[in-house]
Specification:
five-stranded parallel sheet; 5 strands
Length: 190
């Protein structure tokens, strides 16, 4: 019997490094999504130029930005996966939020359930970066799931020999976040 996927979650990862623990966390979300939830890991954030209103026109809009917006438009929810760089989210994730915040008031982010997770080497797991990502996406119009959080500290040691997809606790916590996203999509607040 095939499982009917009814909630599509787009995962945007703030690290471009192929072996990034945050990328691996997103891979774990793809692999272990709850029944009825499909997580797609977006590839291509490195190709999206920094947001500039001068190039965000029908004549000049970069193909990479168009692809990002098209993928976002197909999503029912967003999972932002962020490391912490110098106390905040990486520029690549902020740039994705900036592109997805336009056109203002009617972008793909507006009203879309969004959760933020991540892992970092420090003892708090990157909570400053996650808080900044929630703030930025929320100002852009996303519906932020404030209670669906996951900040995994000590990433360098915790995931030194174990992929997050093989970490039972991390998988269980990711599934809780994804279930919360799915529940919000299925029963939007009125």
């Amino acid at each position: 019997m095939s499982v009917h996927v009814h909630v599509h979650v787009l995962a945007l990862v703030g690290s471009l490094r192929s072996g990034s623990h945050n990328r691996q966390l997103a891979e774990a979300a793809v692999k272990h999504a709850p029944e009825g939830v499909e997580v797609t890991l977006y590839e291509g954030l490195a190709e999206v130029p920094f947001y500039n209103k001068d190039i965000d026109t029908d004549e000049r809009r970069p193909t990479a930005a168009i692809r990002l917006r098209e993928a976002a438009a197909r999503a029912d929810a967003f999972l932002l996966v962020t490391p912490e760089y110098n106390g905040t989210m990486p520029a690549v994730l902020k740039n994705a939020i900036d592109w997805l915040s336009r056109p203002f008031g009617s972008s793909a982010l507006v009203g879309t359930p969004t959760a933020v997770v991540g892992t970092a080497f420090g003892q708090y797991g990157g909570v400053w970066a996650q808080d900044d990502a929630r703030k930025s996406a929320g100002i852009a119009g996303a519906t932020i799931l404030e209670d669906a959080k996951l900040a995994i500290p000590g990433s360098v040691t915790r995931f030194a020999e174990t992929h997050p997809a093989d970490d039972t606790e991390a998988v269980a916590q990711l599934r809780q976040v994804l279930s919360a996203l799915a529940a919000t999509v299925e029963a939007p607040e009125s």
